[in-house]
Amino acid sequence: MSNQLELRHLKYFLAVAEELHFRRAAERLFISQPGLSRQIKQMEEDLGVTLFERHNRKVVLTKAGVYLKAELGRNLQQLEDIINHAKLINEGKKGQLKLGYVGSAMQELIPKLLLKYKTRKPNVVFNLKEIDNQKQIEGLLNFKIDVGFVRLEHVPSIIETQVVLSDTFCLVLPEHHNIDASNFKSLSQLKDSSFILFDPEYSASYYDKVLQIFKDHAFTPIVSHLTIHASSIYKLVENNFGISLVPKSLTTNSVRGVKFIELDKIPQRTELFMVWHKENRNPILMSFLDIIKKQNP
């Protein structure tokens, strides 16, 4: 590799590889388009490799470019994490842990885990982001997050999983619905109701499990709305657009206009998994996993 090739060239390449458009990549990098084109051309000459096929209105990665994009995307993210980790150490911190989670994990589980961890490792910075299930997996694969909390039963083999919560389901009804805990007998009482469910894109395995609940009660639900947000479900139920089923960990007394009935007699449970990349080298992740595994053997 030429001594003239610098880290910025690699970042320029990634921007073009992701945008597949020199003008958009240049705008993203806050440099001129001709300047970016020259830098990429120089990088290809230094490496002795053609990274892009250039057409009149189209830019396409070569096979070498596809490989370099995948490897650089992963390794540059790790390099950035290492540098950030060093900066935190310089500031008296022990490092940073980047967590992704679905909303139900934040109700009770994550605050408890973080408080427990902070009592043992007080000088750690937590970066928390609510992200849907699939984007968490993508974030783990790209090392953009260190650990996730998802409702997915099938993940790539490079991702490790551990069950941290097994949850019952709860029926969600408008506050003034004529059915309540005192007269509720079976979900089949509500077979003619419209249901508001989490979209299959939230988690296909979760959606299948919910459909199995209905199947066990011998009816197919009338699905009026699909969403990926619990807050949308509660607002729709409150305004009589339908009723719903959600994990118990998503229920809270602060939600107005709805009521919950726990379905603790049915066999189905929804599991919350902690997930992480097998090759993640963040030392904070290792200590975090050690504490959590001891709590959830």
Automatic annotation (TrEMBL):
Keyword Acyltransferase: no
Xref: Gene3D superfamilies: Periplasmic binding protein-like II, Winged helix-like DNA-binding domain superfamily/Winged helix DNA-binding domain
Domain HTH lysR-type: from-to ranges: 5-62
GO cellular component entries: protein-DNA complex
InterPro entries per UniProt: LysR_HTH_N, LysR_subst-bd, WH-like_DNA-bd_sf, WH_DNA-bd_sf
Pfam family, one: LysR_substrate
SUPFAM superfamilies, alphabetized: Periplasmic binding protein-like II, Winged helix' DNA-binding domain
Keywords: DNA-binding, Transcription, Transcription regulation
Molecular function per GO: DNA binding; DNA-binding transcription factor activity
UniProt family annotation: Belongs to the LysR transcriptional regulatory family.
PANTHER family according to UniProt: HCA OPERON TRANSCRIPTIONAL ACTIVATOR HCAR (PTHR30346:SF0), TRANSCRIPTIONAL DUAL REGULATOR HCAR-RELATED (PTHR30346)
Name by which UniProt lists this protein: Transcriptional regulator
Organism: Jejuia pallidilutea
